[in-house]
Amino acid sequence: MDIQEFSKTLARIEQEIAKEIIGLKGIIRHVLIAIICGGNVLLEGVPGLGKTRLVKTLSKVLGLDFNRIQFTPDLMPADVVGTNILVKDERGNSVFRFQPGPVFSNLVLADEINRATPKTQSAMLEAMQEHTVTVGGVTRALPEPYFVLATQNPLEQEGTYPLPEAQLDRFLFKLLLDLPSLDELHAIVDLTTGVKQESAQKAADAQTIIELRQLAVQVPIAKPVQDYALRLVMNTHPQLESSPEVTKRLVRYGSSPRGAQAVIQAARVRALMEGRYNVSFEDIRNVAYPSLRHRVFLNYQAMSEGKTPDGVISEIIQATEE
After folding, report:
1. Half-sphere exposure at residue 233, Cβ-oriented, CA atoms within 13 angstroms
2. For residues 191-215, average pLDDT
3. Domains of the chain by range and CATH?
4. How far apart are CA 269 and CA 283, in angstroms?
5. Which residues 6+ apart lie within 8 Å of 103 measured at CB?
6. Which residues lie across from 133 on neighbouring strands?
7. Percent of the chain residues past pLDDT 70, beyond the cut
């Protein structure tokens, strides 16, 4: 696969998704970047913005197996990863057989993931990072490609359990869904309440995703561009003397090395999407927000001033020289 074929494939996928998803072009592009990188995505937005519909449409267009897990406070780890059950064999003897949970799929929608208890959330960590599940001392591989797309509601916090930092760090991107514009709202109402004209069709498969990923890792990145990306990540740490003043004043903890990996991986994919076979400074700045907004933790001073992670990241970008 070459750059032209890469661009055509992505354009075809985006065209099919647009048949069922109105607007959200930036969100869709970033989700596709994460999928090609092999990373997980956390979607945050108020109810009714189409988060679940987006994931379902993605599974249809990409031709991937799809499972949905509705996270609730009474959900147990065995309900997620699976468990050993007692069954009768051909001779009538009782034997244990592993019953796979819903994580055994290419694309897993973790709906309202922050409603589950920490015990159940921790059951997802191994699957998200190592793409394996260990039950009863036996480790089983998950199907490839494998992605977790989780949703959470920022408004209704009663009865929710904030995601621990270790789990947040396992999401390549955190994406924020905004309200649609008036024109987009017209189109959404026409699409969902009228006679449906067309539905999204399959435009790729698992092998296509793997080929796209293999091409993306070959994209070269110049030393100054990589140095800029890594300095940008280092500038999120307030304890470093070289960090800008905004970081020392407003940030409590900075990004982990996974943040640097996410920025570099995503920038390579974005470069190919733009039809270039090299990473630019603009690619780094574009993917810095979804890669770092859940890895930069603000202090009380920032919260008292009404600052947001995106606002602080923007100031850090301005303070980081190319």
Report:
1. 23
2. 80
3. 3-194+203-211 (3.40.50.300), 219-319 (1.10.8.80)
4. 9
5. 67, 69, 80, 81, 82, 124, 127, 133, 142
6. 140
7. 97
